[in-house]
Amino acid sequence: MSIDVVNITKTYKGFTALDAVNLHIPTGELVALLGPSGSGKTTLLRIIAGLEWPDSGEVRFDGADALNRSVGERNVGFVFQHYALFRHMSVFENVAFGLRVRKGADKLPEAAIRAKVSELLALVQIDWLADRYPAQLSGGQRQRVALARALAISPRILLLDEPFGALDAKVRKELRRWLRQLHEELPVTSVLVTHDQEEALELADRVVVMGKGRIEQIGTPGEVYETPATAFVHDFIGESLSLPADVRGGRLFLGERAIALDSQGASEGPARLLARPHEVDLADPAQAPFFGKVLAVRTFGPIRRADIQIVVPSGHVVVEAAVPFGEGLEIGSQVGLVPRRYRVFGAQA
Amino acid sequence: MSTIHPTALVQPLASDGPPTLAKQARTQNGHRPARTEPAAVRIALTLIALAFLGLFIGLPLLLVFVEAFKRGFAAYVAALSDPDALAAIRLTLLVAAISVTANVIFGLVASWAIAKFEFAGKSLLITLIDLPFSVSPVVAGLIYVLLFGSQGLLAAPLQAWDIKIIFALPGIVLATIFVTFPFVARELIPLMQDQGTAEEEAAISLGASGFSTFFRVTLPNVKWALLYGVLLCNARAMGEFGAVSVVSGHVRGLTNTMPLHIEILYNEYQFGASFAVASLLALLALVTLIAKTILESRLAEEEPR
Amino acid sequence: MATATASRFTFRKPSVIPGFGLTFGLTLTWLCLIVLLPLSALFLKTSELSFDRLMVIMSNARTLHALQISFGLSLAAAAINLVFGGLVVWVLVRYDFPFKRVVDAVIDIPFALPTAVAGIALTTLYAENGWIGSLLAPLGVQVSFTPLGILVALVFIGLPFVVRTVQPVLADLDAELEDAAASLGATRGQTIWRVVLPTIWPALLTGFAMAFARAVGEYGSVIFIAGNLPGVSEIAPLLIVIRLEEFRYADATAIASVMLLASFVLLFIINRLQHWAESRGGRGR
Are strands A280-283 and A303-312 parallel, antiparallel or unpaired? Predict the structure, then answer.
C-alpha cells in the first residue's frame, strides 16, 4: 500500500511541528524518517497512523483519503516507542488483542485466533514466551511482542516510532537486521522514525531527513550521505568539517582572500563550505586553499585526526581533519588543507 | 488531601535498611556509622515513640473491645440484636452501598477525563474534586439543610412535590457522598496519569472501541487502586458522624446510622451497648487497615516502570 | 471521528481516545450538583444577612469563644503532632524494632476508626474512673470534659497526617547527604539539624497544616470528651449544630461561612506547601 502525504501542516500553540510537508512512499518500501528531536518526524508518523490530525493537508493510502478514517479503521500496525504493551495481559493475549476486539462478521473463532497468534510469535521468534507478562521480558523481547501485536491485524502499513531507542547497542544491531528481513518477508510498507543515522542508513530503502518541521532531503542512504542537498543534511549525517566563506561574483572568498575552489553555483553572500574529514588532504600551507595551526593530534584505533585552527574574519575556527599514518605532524606547526570533495551552501540552504 | 499515596507506605527493606538496636553494639572499634545515633538514644527515642502511639492510638482501640465485652458475651449479642441496633446497621450498609457506588462511577468517569486528556483548567478541576476533604463535616451537613431543609432554598418545590430529603435517607446519602467525594477519584487520577495514554492508543490502533479499550485495558490496569479507593471510601462512609448527624434528625430505627446509634446509647448511659456497636465499626476499621496493607504491595505493581 | 479541521478547537489537545465530552461533562455536572451548588447555597444564605446582623453574630461572646477554642486548640494539637509525629516518623524510618510493620499500620487507625467510636473511647479512657484518667486524677489533672480533652482528641485525629506526609520524604532522603556532612566534620546533631531537618521541613509543615485543617473542622471525636461548656469547652462546629437545633439558621450559617473560608485559606496554603515540598524534594537529585 502506498502512502502519500500532501502539504501537511501542524502547529502546537504557535510552534510549527510540520510545515507543508510532502512525501510519497511507494508500496513495499521501508522508509526512515531521520532527524533530531523536535524535527517533526514523530508527529508526521502519528498523523499517518491517525493518532493525530494535521491542521491542513492530506494523507492518502493507495490514493484514497485516509484522514476521514480513524486509527482503528486505517488498519496500520503501530509500534510504540516504549512498546505500550498491556501490562496485565500475557504475551499471547497482547498479540491476540487486535483479533479479540473485532466485532460481528470480522470476529475470528478462538481456534483461528490461537493459530494466528502462534504463527506470529513463531515469526518474531518468541513463541516460548507466550505465557509471560511484559514485566518479565527483556527490552528486545518486548520489542518483538510489540511488533507481533502490531502485525496481528494484518496491516499493510507498518509504522515504527524509535523502535530501537530503548535498547542497548548490541541488541539494537541484531534487531535491526532482523527487522529488515521481516520487512522483506511481509507485504507491508514500513515507515520508521529514528534519530540514529546509522540505523536509518543501514535499514532503509530511502531516508527522509527532517529538520524543524521540514523535509530537507529524500534519497537513498547513499544519496543523502554522498550528495547532501543542504548544509543541515551535510552536518547531520556523517562527520563534517565546516568553514565560513563568502561568494562574491561567483567566486569563493575566505575573508578578503580568494580561494581557488569552485563556488558550485552557491548564491551570492555568506556561505559555508562543508567537507568530510577523511576527504581533506594535508598539504603545503603556501599552496593550499586553507591553512592553520596544528593544535592536537589524536589516534584511536585505525583512525588518526588532527585539530587545526584556521584564522577566519570573525576570529578563528577549529576543524578536524584526517591524518594519514606516517605523516608527521608537529603540534604548533602550520599545515595546509585541500578538500578533495566538498560542498558549498549559500546562507539559505 | 487526607489520602496517603500508596507508595508512601512502602518501607525500605532490611538489606541496607536501618540498623537494628542489637546490631549497633557490634560495630568495629566502637565507631558507629555516620548515619545513626548512639544505641541509648535510639532505644530512648523508640520507646518514647511507641509510648506515644500506645497512649494515643493503642489504648483507645483496645478499650473499645474491652468495654464491649465487659458485661459478657450474652450482653454483647443482646446489644447488637436490639431492633434499633439492627435498623442502624441496615441503614449504614444501605447508605454505604449507595455512596460507594456513586463514588466509584464518578471516580472512574472523572479520572478518565482528567488522566487521559489534556485540557485547560485541569488542576483547578482536581482541586475542586479535593475540596470536600477540607470542609468540616458539620458544614457539609449544614449546606444540605440550607438547600433542602424546611427553611431551605428549595423548600417550596420540595413541599409541593412532597419530597423529603432532610431527616430522611436521601439527605443522609447526599451528606455521605459529599464527605467521601474525593476518595476513589484521588486514588485513580495520579495512577492513571502516570500510566499515560500509550496503552489506550495501542488498543485503539488495533481496532478496539472506546468501551472495549476502557474495560479491557484501562480498568484492569487500575483495578487494585480502585479497590483501595473503595475500601477507604467505604470505611469513611460507614463511619461518618458529623455530616450525617446534622441531616439525619436522629429518628430511632429510621434515620439512625451506626455512629448516631452509638451516640444515643452513650448519652443514655448504656455504655456496654454503645461500645458493642462501636466494636463493629472498630472491627471494620481493622479489617480495612489489614486489607489496605495487603493491597499496597499489589498497588506497587500498577505503578509504571 | 475527527476530521482534518477538528483540531482547531483549542480548549483541549485533540486525541484519538474517545469519550472526553461525555466524561468531562458528567464530571462537571456531578461536581456541581454534589459540591459546588450546595456550597454556594451557604454563601447565598450568608449574603442575605445584613452587615449589622453579621457583626452581631460574629461579635457574640459565645461565637468568639467557640472559634477561639477551635482554632487555638487545633494549633496546639498540630504542634504536638509536629513534634511527636516527627519523632514517630524518625523511629519508623530509621530504626528497626519488633512488630514494626504492625506499628506502621496502626498509625492509620485515626483515619479508619469512625470519629464517634474514637470519641467515646477517648472519653472513657480519660474519665476520672478510666484507665488513664484514674492515674491522672490523684495529680489533680482532669482530661475528659475539659479543654484538655479536646486537645487529646485533636492530637489523635491529626497524627497520621504528619506521619504519612513526612514518611516518604524521609525514606527517600539520600543517605549520602548524611555521610557527606559527617565526612566534612559535622557532629550527628549538626547533621540532623542542618542537613536532615531542612530537607524534610516542607513536608513537616505540610503535615502540620493538614493536621490543623482537619482539627479545626473536627466534630465527632471531640463532642464526647469536650464537656461542651459554652465559652470553655465548646468548639465552633458544635455551636453550628446547636444554633441549627435552635432554628437560628442565620447564626449557624454565619459561623459556617467563617469556617469554610478558613478551610479555603488552609487548602490554598497546603497546596503552596506541597509545591514547595515537591520542588525541594526534586532539588539536587
Answer: unpaired
**Separation in Å, CA A239 to CA A197, A225, A270, B111:** 11, 10, 22, 49
Mutate to test the interface with C, among B3, B37, B46, B217 (most CBs of C within 10 A): B46
**C interface test, pick of A12, A18, A43, A53 with most C CB neighbours within 10 Å:** A53
Please give the full DSSP string across B223-242, using - where no structure is assigned: HHHHHHHHHHHHHHHHH--H
pLDDT of residue B10: 34
Contact partners, residue C92, CB within 8 Å, separation at least 6: B11, B49, C100, C103, C104, C107, C163, C167
Contact yes or no for C78/C212 (Cβ under 8 A): yes
Write down the ipTM of this complex: 0.88
Residue C142 to residues B51, C65, C68, Cα–Cα distance (Å) = 20, 21, 21
pLDDT tens readout for residues C123-173:
999 998 889 988 988 888 888 888 999 999 999 999 999 999 999 989 888
Residue with cell 524509535: A162
- In angstroms, what separates the C-alpha of C234 from chain B's closest C-alpha? 14
What's the first-to-final CA gap in chain A, in angstroms?
Answer: 33
Chains with ≥3 CB–CB distances under 8 Å to C: A, B
Rg, Å, chain C Cα set: 24
d(C-alpha A42, C-alpha A46), whole Å: 6
Instruction: Report whether B195 contacts B221 (CB < 8 A).
Output: yes
Nearest CA in chain A to B207: A72
Q: Which amino acid, A93?
A: E
Please give, rounded to a whole number of angstroms, the shortest distance from the CA of A19 to a CA of chain C: 15
The reported pLDDT for the residue numbered A93 is 93
CA contacts within 13 A on the Cβ side of C128: 5
* pTM of the model as a whole: 0.82
Q: Are A339 and A259 in contact (CB under 8 A)?
A: no
C283 in contact with chain A, both atoms CB, cutoff 8 A: no
Do C93 and B18 lie within an 8 Å CB cutoff? yes
Return the SS3 of A38: coil
Look at residue A326 and tell me whether its pLDDT is greater than 80: no
Query: How would you class B110 by CB atoms within 10 Å of its CB: exposed for 0-12, middle for 13-18, buried for 19 or more?
Result: buried
User: What is chain A's percent helix, strand, coil content, to nearest 5?
Assistant: 30, 35, 35
| Tens digit of each residue's pLDDT (9 = 90 or more) over B67-121 | 999 888 999 999 899 999 999 999 999 999 999 999 999 999 999 999 999 998 8
For residues A74 and A218, give the distance between their C-alpha atoms in angstroms, rounded to a whole number.
25
Q: What does DSSP assign to residue A208?
A: E
Q: What is the dihedral of CA C194, C200, C204, C210, to 10 degrees?
A: 160
Instruction: Tell me: pLDDT of A18 over 60.
Output: yes
Give residue-wise pLDDT tens across range C85-125: 999 999 999 888 888 888 998 999 998 999 999 999 999 99
Asked if the C-beta of C14 comes within 8 angstroms of chain A's C-beta atoms, the answer is yes
Contact A192, A35 (CB under 8 A): no
> Do A146 and A84 meet the contact criterion of CB atoms below 8 Å apart?
yes
Q: CA–CA separation, C235 vs C216, rounded Å?
A: 9
B165 and B174 Cβ atoms separated by less than 8 Å: yes
Helix, coil or strand: residue B62: helix
CB contact under 8 A, A51 and C7: no
Residue B174 to residue C132, Cβ atoms within 8 A: no
Q: In degrees rounded to 5, what are phi and psi of residue C23?
A: -70, -40
Q: Quick check: C65 and C147 in contact, CB under 8 A?
A: no
Contact C70, B35 (CB under 8 A): no
Cβ–Cβ < 8 Å for B149, B167: no
Q: Do A80 and B217 touch (CB under 8 A)?
A: no
